[in-house]
Amino acid sequence: MPRWYDFRTWQGLSSDRSIAGACSEVIAMGIFHLGHRARRLGSAAILVGALTLASVSVVSAGNGNNGTVKIQEGASNAEPVTKNEPHVCTFHMLFLFADAGQAGDWSIDQQPPTGRDASVVSGSYLTDTNGEFATVEYGLPIGHYTLNWEGRNDQNMKHKTFWVTCENPAGPFGGGGGGGGGGGGGIG
Asked: How far apart are CA 179 and CA 4, in angstroms?
C-alpha cells in the first residue's frame, strides 16, 4: 500500500527535512507509487537539483578555454578595450578574461592571397592576476594574416584573421620581446 506524503510540510519523511533528503526518499520508495502530480513534483525536484549541481560545477571550473583575443591598431588600447580591429598598420594583441597565471604560445601565419608562410611572428604569454595580457606593438608587411592563440592547451586554439594595410618590417617595435618573446604584460 503506498504511503501518503504531504510535500508542503514534509510530513511522513525522515528527520532529514532537506529537499535533497526528500528527493532521495521519494526515489527510494519508488516514484511510480505516487500520484500523477506528485510524480511531476518529484521529477521536477530531481531536475532542479541536477541543474543546480551542473551550474555550480560550470561556475567553479577555472581551468577552461576561457578568454578572448583581440587585434588592435598601434601600441595603445582601443576604446572599448574589447574592440577588435581587423585592418591595421601596426598592431598589438590583447588577451582578456582568461585565468590568472594562464600561459601559452601564439603565432601569426600568412593567409592567401598574401602567401602561406607559417609562424611569420610568434611568441608566448603569461596572464597577470586579472587574467589579462598585452603584447608590444608589432608590424608585418602588407597582407592577410591569421593569429593562432593557444588557450589552456594546444587543443584549445583561438584564431583572429586580420589585414595589415601598410608596409612594415616583420617583428616587434620599440625593442620589445623579439620574435619569440612576445613582450607585454597587464592591461593599463
From this structure: 74
pLDDT in tens, 35-44: 555 556 566 5
DSSP for residue 34 = S
Q: Is residue 152 a contact partner of residue 163, using CB atoms and an 8 Å limit?
A: no
- Cβ 93 vs Cβ 106: under 8 Å: yes
Lowest mean pLDDT among 4-8, 55-59, 78-82: 55-59
Q: Residues 61-70: what's their mean pLDDT?
A: 74
| Whole-Å CA distances, 127 to 26, 72, 94 | 48, 18, 10
Report how far residue 20's alpha carbon sits from residue 50's, in angstroms, rounded to the nearest whole number: 10
Q: What pLDDT, on a 0 to 100 scale, did the predictor assign at position 66?
A: 81
Burial 118-144 (b: 16+ CB within 10 A, else e): eebbbbebebbeebbbbbbbbbbeebe
- The whole-angstrom separation of Cα 131 and Cα 94 is 11
Question: How many other β-carbons are positioned within 10 Å of the β-carbon of residue 42?
Answer: 20
d(CA 185, CA 83): 18
Distance CA 159, CA 104 (A): 14
Whether pLDDT at 104 is above 80: yes
Mean pLDDT over residues 122-145, rounded? 95
CB 138, CB 91: distance < 8 Å: yes
